[in-house]
Amino acid sequence: QEPIRPILVTMSQGAAVAAEFGYHVEFIPYHNYLGVDPDIWNRNLREELIALIDAFDARAIVFDGNSPFQGMLDAMTLRPHVWSIWSRRGMWRKNTGAEFMTREKQFDAVLEPGDIAEAFDDGPTPQSISRTRKVPPILMLDTSEQLPKTLARQELGLAEDVTTILIQLGGGNNFDMRLCRNLVLQHLADRTDI
Fold first, then answer.
1. Cα-to-chain-centroid distance, residue 44
2. Lowest mean per-residue pLDDT among 25-29, 155-159, 174-178
3. pTM beyond 0.85
4. 25 strand-pairing partners
5. Which of the four, 3, 81, 91, 152, has the lowest number of CB atoms within 10 Å?
6. pLDDT (0 to 100) of residue 76
7. 120 class by beta-carbon count within 10 Å (0-12 exposed, 13-18 middle, 19+ buried)
8. What integer pLDDT is reported at residue 175 of this predicted model?
9. 3-class secondary-structure state, position 185
10. Chain centroid to CA 2
11. Predicted pLDDT at 122
12. What totals of helices (H) and strands (E) does the chain contain, helices first?
């Protein structure tokens, strides 16, 4: 069996981090960063993705995000022999994403990584499960590489006897997260047990 050689195509400013891990990374800036018309950007995205698919003889496209770009969908249509997978996280806000959910049918499969809070998911993804396959959370590290809780706390300088909270609300590219972040921080600031 041939090894998998991932080619990461990203719009993230964190592209260099993936490159440091030894992955081949292609950075394509998002149209908002470039100040370019979205239609023109999507046409260019389509051409860039087709060139990458052809150059690397791609067997699959795995999209990790919540808004499949038209340029990518067009590239998938023009390369129908390439398997397409949407790695779609849950926990979308209620009454959002209807347009993006309709794009699900253009993928061969939809993967949804598990989420610790999925029982509280009242967004659109739990309603659209006919083609969805649940998978365990996707982690950067193998279980064998993860530190035990006590050692991890020591490495981070965190006390053993307090609750530790990590807040990661996203980059704010799709939604303004300031209000939510400020409310959470304000609530937590009044607590002495964290």
1. 22
2. 174-178
3. no
4. 8
5. 3
6. 98
7. exposed
8. 67
9. helix
10. 26
11. 86
12. 7, 6
Nearest-CA neighbor of 108 among 133, 134, 136?
133
Q: Rounded distance, CA 27 to CA 19, Å? A: 10
Q: Which run of H or E residues covers position 31? A: helix 31-34
* Cα distance between residue 86 and residue 84, in whole Å: 7
The amino acid at residue 188 is L
Pairing of strands 109-113, 60-64: unpaired
β-pairing, 109-113 vs 83-87, is parallel
- End-to-end, the C-alpha distance of the chain in Å comes to 49
String of DSSP letters for 92-107: PPTT--HHHHGGGGGS
Q: How far is CA 123 from each of CA 24, 110, 176, rounded to the nearest angstrom?
A: 34, 16, 18
Check if the beta carbon of residue 42 is closer than 8 Å to that of residue 77: no
Please state, in angstroms and rounded to a whole number, the distance separating the CA atoms of residues 184 and 134.
29
Q: Taking the CA atoms of the chain, what radius of gyration do you get in angstroms?
A: 19
* Whether the Cβ atoms of residue 60 and residue 82 lie closer than 8 Å to each other: yes
